[in-house]
Hints:
By secondary structure, the protein is of the alpha/beta class. The protein has seven helices and twelve strands. The strands form three sheets. It has a seven-stranded mixed β-sheet with strand order 1-10-9-8-5-6-7, sandwiched between helices. Strands 3-12-4 form a three-stranded antiparallel β-sheet, with helices on one face. A two-stranded antiparallel sheet has the order 2-11. A hairpin with an 8-residue loop joins strand 6 and strand 7 (105-109). Helix 2 (69-82) packs antiparallel against helix 3 (113-122), helix 2 crosses helix 7 (215-224) and helix 4 packs parallel to helix 5. The longest helix has 14 residues, at 69-82. The radius of gyration is 17 Å and the shape is globular.
Amino acid sequence: xxxxxxxxxxxxxxxxxxxxxxxxxxxxxxxxxxxxxxxxxxxxxxxxxxxxxxxxxxxxxxxxxxxxxxxxxxxxxxxxxxxxxxxxxxxxxxxxxxxxxxxxxxxxxxxxxxxxxxxxxxxxxxxxxxxxxxxxxxxxxxxxxxxxxxxxxxxxxxxxxxxxxxxxxxxxxxxxxxxxxxxxxxxxxxxxxxxxxxxxxxxxxxxxxxxxxxxxxxxxxxxxxxxxxxxxxxxxxxxxxxxxxx
Length: 246
């Protein structure tokens, strides 16, 4: 298990180009970040499933992502990939800890506007939901998606502080270990549980509260480009630059 560190900066709303919006009013400074070229399409059929924690410890006032920065950057990463995909073999899906919810998105193709619009509709906190810290239901749904996917590779990405309230947390981590694909756990501004470190088919990344602009987008892009040709998300010498305002 390799533990990588990133930094996630708060109090920002992300946009691209002239669409960037300020969360703090006039006089906000623009903070650019660059995403690398996502590589070229391969012959592999891939599915990337993103699960988001919307509990109070993450999304509430004083939480680890109170203005939903994770969703803004996720949208940028998905659009970045979709703009480069022409093969029709790459799929994405979105789930939430509050499962089922109206913001869950089943697997859709990422090579066109229709699929991207569906993904973007799922990148927000589900309205009217409790905000549970139970991962089990959405993880079980993700595993079913992966098992039913008629393709070559599945990547699961979980964004949470992992302050789980599941009745049997051990079974949740056991499900991760048997997930039919790569499991990427992104720990948002919290202590990393040892159980995540021990997952043999997993990757782990810490995203603390003082992270730099683009940290979440870079992490998601790594998952999306895992099996693309020539993608390099470790360094960013060239690519497209996006802007955040703060």
